């Protein structure tokens, strides 16, 4: 009791912005219990075991490197443009004009008269697989020929990812000798550090290769492997030996693909030779016979040609151990292991592995792509509407510094978003959708007509505001003011005054979150209407907090938005609908599928949006029941299940909330990769992991606007222990 009061006092007085160690739960054994292990050679041909730092990640096969499988090495900064179609520049792209409430509005949609540049803009730039690093067998004669390792060469394989230190340990036997491998990534530089130990190394019979694929714009999805390994003549590499800086040897490989140039800096600790395999981009690092058994290698990928300052393998190992220990011991934590209830343990496993994988894949300088840094989906680009599901959980878990790394995207993209709105005759800033780091939104019918990314800025800003210490609030208000003002200006001018109904309509044309309705007749989708209202209400409150005048248009539109549309369910109850006037809402199989974003109006959206003058609770309860009854969950994937779960949590239905989190259509594989959806989103589909962490945070830490102290919403008999959570909105 005394300890509890002390913690409460500390929380009340210390600035709340920095993550703190809470230290009530002994976290390490819980984390380590879920260390992924793999024990067969081809454990999984779909997903690697990964190490990384949020901006850079390395996908390893069973050898701890990319020996057998060319899993990927991806970063936030590695991008490539294919050459433009002949006689064309991006300025040749003009998009399409669609009638929009009586006027022609230009949308960035592929223009059939401009097929070349339309497709080029969709597929460029694309994310680069920086290179492959693996083991090779050598003849051991000092200048030996290399021999590729195959599955059949390996036996007694054993691999474990130590989550607590971000280290992969792999052991295997090859040619009768054991090889032990440690694989780590530096938290600061984009450096892979490898420690390998074997008599084969001291005999010069085992070495390393580095290889480079060409980056191509041919495939929308490149999973599980990224890049074209057969286009040797389309790109160039060269090798130069470098100042060793205390290492035994060092080299730099320059890789040029068209306009893209980046560097690989290598350092090793034992006498070795490095050479190019003629006619390829494959480099072989051959340890000399007579070395010690322990070989250390660092491989730094960088857009910069100057030698990196990072230290050797030992120093990187301590830096990684330190970074990960801090990551695990600060911020929030949930312990569901008090009972051995299988569902509780599975949710714990998914949570721990998601915490790991999101720090590896989704804590970079840009919003994450759906597949993080594991493989390429949508050419490696990221989606502004998915940013919330990927990343908002960092705030509830008290890890705001990891979100801050990418949140600057709203400042960077503001100018081009203002231009987008202006070109279409709207005020303010219209946020794009499928983006590269320059902020260009890829041409696409859906891309140009989706709108639910627009209010996300209010969600992020309001969450930050609610979490901040009072003394920081002024800074938060100012930081977001311009972004929110521009966003709200667009939202007010986008809403269309309907002379006959005397309300403001959203659309047409538009696509709702489920992207499966006819855009020229989709009007007033329930989720988008509620989210628009939340955004405008927050914009108004923000100005009031800043003591600034509130633009009339915001108040006017917020107060006169179309009501949430309803229809009768097959059992005659009034329910909300996907959009206004949709035929056969609950009986058309093409409607009761895909993202059930209807449920987000309660589960995801904050208190004001749940107020009785916006949302009728009787109708909403009937809607939730009808979704549970009629929806085709086989067709749902990723964040759908956390969204449904959050809705059930808020409605107080714990069993349903837990059920959604372990729905058979919501799977995480042996290393915690969130399984995608056949034909829609390859594995990993990380919005599922981000959503899971947000749902768990909601169950553990509750939400704003509750009048009594929140008691965790996990089943009572699980005896869940939670600490350090911030309420979600
Ligand atoms: C490999 O991973 C995929 C997706 O991540 C999963 O569907 C499959 O079951 C896994 N296979 C094995 C053998 O673990
Ligand atoms: C690719 O080309 C576009 C359009 O010219 C440009 O904005 C972008 O910076 C280029 N990116 C890379 C990585 O070259
Ligand atoms: C583009 O121009 C080059 C050089 O004139 C030519 O070799 C190539 O076939 C052209 N490509 C296309 C797609 O027309
Ligand atoms: C692209 O625009 C330039 C300049 O207006 C023009 O000369 C060129 O023919 C256009 N290219 C195509 C493929 O239409
Ligand atoms: C929507 O209307 C525009 C004309 O404003 C038309 O060009 C387009 O093909 C229509 N789209 C669909 C999907 O019907
Ligand atoms: C080794 O594998 C690489 C990549 O698959 C291939 O290009 C190369 O020809 C192989 N080398 C040998 C000696 O088989
Ligand atoms: C290596 O390649 C880069 C890029 O193509 C080039 O600028 C550089 O001069 C080359 N260096 C050597 C030593 O060939
Ligand atoms: C595990 O917990 C859930 C939720 O409380 C419960 O429904 C289920 O029966 C439990 N399983 C076992 C084996 O006790
Ligand atoms: C006004 O709303 C009604 C009912 O939703 C709709 O049928 C009509 O098309 C709307 N008017 C305009 C001009 O969009
Ligand atoms: C707004 O005005 C109130 C009352 O004068 C003051 O306490 C508060 O600090 C002001 N807020 C800001 C952001 O300036
Ligand atoms: C909510 O909807 C129900 C069912 O249509 C209706 O009977 C009730 O009056 C509504 N409540 C409010 C507060 O509007
Ligand atoms: C449900 O969705 C799955 C996957 O898209 C589909 O194969 C199946 O036919 C759908 N079921 C119904 C009843 O429409």
Automatic annotation (TrEMBL):
Protein name: Six-hairpin glycosidase-like protein
Highest classification ranks of the organism: Eukaryota, Fungi, Dikarya, Ascomycota, Pezizomycotina
Keyword Coiled coil listed: no
Span of the signal peptide: 1-19
Matches recorded under Gene3D superfamilies: 1.50.10.10
Protein species of origin: Paecilomyces lecythidis
Superkingdom, natural source: Eukaryota
Record's keyword annotation contains Signal: yes
Keyword field: Signal
């Amino acid at each position: 009791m005394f300890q509890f009061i002390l913690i409460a006092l500390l929380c009340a007085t210390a600035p709340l912005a920095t993550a703190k160690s809470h230290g009530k739960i002994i976290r390490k054994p819980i984390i380590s219990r879920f260390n992924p292990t793999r024990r067969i050679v081809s454990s999984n041909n779909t997903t690697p075991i990964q190490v990384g730092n949020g901006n850079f990640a390395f996908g390893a096969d069973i050898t701890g490197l990319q020996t057998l499988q060319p899993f990927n090495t991806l970063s936030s900064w590695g991008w490539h443009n294919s050459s433009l179609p002949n006689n064309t520049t991006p300025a040749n792209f003009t998009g399409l004009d669609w009638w929009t409430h009586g006027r022609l509005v230009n949308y960035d949609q592929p223009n059939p008269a401009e097929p070349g540049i339309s497709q080029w803009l969709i597929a460029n730039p694309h994310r680069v697989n920086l290179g492959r690093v693996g083991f090779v067998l050598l003849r051991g004669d000092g200048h030996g020929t290399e021999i590729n390792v195959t599955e059949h060469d390996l036996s007694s394989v054993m691999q474990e990812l130590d989550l607590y230190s971000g280290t992969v340990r792999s052991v295997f036997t090859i040619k009768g000798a054991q090889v032990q491998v440690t694989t780590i990534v530096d938290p600061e530089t984009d450096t892979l550090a490898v420690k390998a130990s074997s008599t084969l190394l001291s005999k010069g019979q085992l070495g390393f290769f580095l290889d480079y694929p060409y980056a191509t714009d041919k495939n929308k999805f490149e999973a599980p492997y990224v890049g074209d390994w057969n286009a040797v003549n389309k790109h160039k590499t060269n090798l130069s030996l470098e100042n060793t800086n205390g290492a035994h040897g060092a080299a730099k490989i320059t890789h040029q693909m068209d306009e893209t140039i980046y560097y690989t800096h290598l350092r090793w600790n034992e006498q070795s030779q490095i050479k190019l395999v003629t006619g390829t981009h494959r480099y072989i690092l051959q340890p000399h016979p007579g070395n010690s058994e322990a070989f250390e290698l660092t491989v730094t990928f960088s857009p910069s040609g100057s030698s990196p300052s990072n230290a050797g393998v030992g120093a990187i190992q301590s830096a990684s151990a330190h970074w990960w220990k801090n990551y695990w011991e600060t911020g929030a934590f949930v312990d569901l292991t008090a009972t051995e209830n299988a569902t509780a343990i599975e949710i714990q496993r998914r949570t721990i592995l998601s915490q790991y994988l999101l720090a590896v894949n989704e804590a970079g300088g840009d919003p994450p792509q759906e597949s993080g840094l594991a493989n390429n989906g949508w050419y490696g680009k990221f989606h502004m509407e998915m940013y919330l599901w990927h990343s908002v959980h960092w705030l509830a878990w008290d890890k705001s510094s990891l979100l801050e790394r990418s949140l600057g995207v709203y400042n960077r993209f503001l100018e081009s978003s203002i231009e987008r709105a202006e070109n279409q005759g709207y005020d303010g800033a219209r946020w794009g959708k499928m983006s590269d780091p320059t902020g260009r939104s890829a041409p696409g019918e859906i891309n140009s007509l989706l709108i639910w990314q627009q209010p996300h800025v209010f969600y992020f800003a309001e969450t930050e505001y609610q979490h901040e210490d009072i003394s920081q609030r002024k800074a938060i208000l100012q930081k977001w003011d311009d972004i929110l003002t521009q966003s709200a200006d667009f939202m007010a001018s986008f809403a269309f005054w309907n002379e006959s109904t005397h309300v403001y309509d959203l659309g047409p044309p538009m696509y709702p979150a489920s992207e499966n309705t006819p855009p020229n007749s989709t009007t007033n989708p329930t989720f988008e209407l509620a989210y628009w209202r939340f955004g405008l209400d927050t914009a108004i409150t923000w100005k009031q907090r800043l003591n600034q005048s509130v633009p009339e248009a915001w108040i006017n539109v917020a107060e006169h938005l179309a009501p949430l549309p309803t229809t009768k369910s097959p059992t005659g109850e009034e329910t909300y609908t996907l959009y206004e006037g949709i035929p056969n809402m609950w009986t058309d199989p093409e409607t009761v599928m895909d993202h059930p974003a209807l449920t987000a109006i309660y589960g995801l959206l904050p208190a004001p949006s749940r107020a009785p003058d916006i949302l009728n609770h009787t109708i909403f309860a009937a809607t939730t029941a009808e979704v549970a009854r009629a929806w085709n969950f086989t067709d749902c994937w990723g964040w759908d299940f956390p969204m449904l779960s959050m809705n059930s949590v808020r409605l107080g239905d714990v069993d349903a909330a837990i059920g959604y989190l372990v729905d058979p259509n919501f799977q995480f594989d042996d290393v915690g990769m969130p399984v995608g959806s056949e034909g829609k989103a390859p594995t990993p589909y990380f919005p599922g992991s981000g959503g899971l962490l947000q749902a768990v945070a909601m169950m553990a830490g509750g939400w704003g606007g509750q009048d009594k102290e929140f008691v965790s919403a996990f089943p009572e008999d699980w005896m869940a222990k939670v600490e350090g959570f911030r309420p979600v909105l």
